[in-house]
Design brief:
By secondary structure, this protein is α+β, with helices and mostly antiparallel strands. The protein has helices at residues 26-41, 122-135, 140-143, 147-152, and strands at residues 46-48, 58-63, 66-79, 82-86, 96-100, 103-109, 115-121. It has four helices and seven strands, in the order H-E-E-E-E-E-E-E-H-H-H. Strands 1-2-3-6-7 form a five-stranded antiparallel beta sheet, sandwiched between helices. It has a two-stranded antiparallel sheet with strand order 4-5. The radius of gyration is 15 Å and the shape is globular.
């Protein structure tokens, strides 16, 4: 496993929509392993492939000591509302409040191409939503309830 450089806000690649993963091969496995290492080395809860410069629909998450890889994830159900502070490895110094669903169900495939469905609440739901946003070129500061504070501090969108 290698640690990759995290792409920071201001880089246009973070605003692009990622393409679906089609090849479930050693290149994908290496990407996922590197993303896991990069997430842990940067003290993150989640990381999306665009954050390491790869425009593919792949994310890794570790919430409450539950590590999961989601390839081509799609939220199929959501309920409730929850507002909490979020941060982002691509934004670094700012944390702000974001409203997300309290509970979601996502369908995805694993690194071998096998489909599965996962339901998560609170932080797991929040983290999955945050990382799926990255796959769609959306950053948490776009949805942040504290956006004015972020911009006053010199933040970029």
């Amino acid at each position: 496993m290698a640690t990759r450089k995290v792409v920071l806000i201001g880089d246009n690649s973070l605003r692009k929509i990622s393409k679906p993963v089609k090849d479930f091969d050693e290149d994908l496995w290496q990407l996922l392993d590197d993303m896991k290492s990069t997430m842990y080395c940067n003290d993150g809860m989640g990381l999306a492939a665009p954050q390491v410069g790869v425009l593919r629909r792949a994310i890794v998450i570790d919430v409450n000591n539950m590590f999961v890889e989601l390839i081509n994830p799609e939220i199929i159900e959501q309920e409730g509302k929850d507002v909490e502070q979020e941060g982002c490895l691509s934004v670094r110094t700012f944390r702000g409040r974001v409203e997300r669903p309290y509970k979601i169900t996502v369908k995805a495939v694993d690194r071998f191409g096998y489909p599965f469905v996962l339901t998560g609440e609170k932080w797991l739901a929040r983290c999955i939503c945050h990382e799926i946003d990255h796959l769609n070129g959306v950053l948490f500061v776009d949805k942040c309830l504290d956006k004015e504070k972020y911009l006053k501090q010199g933040g970029k969108l």
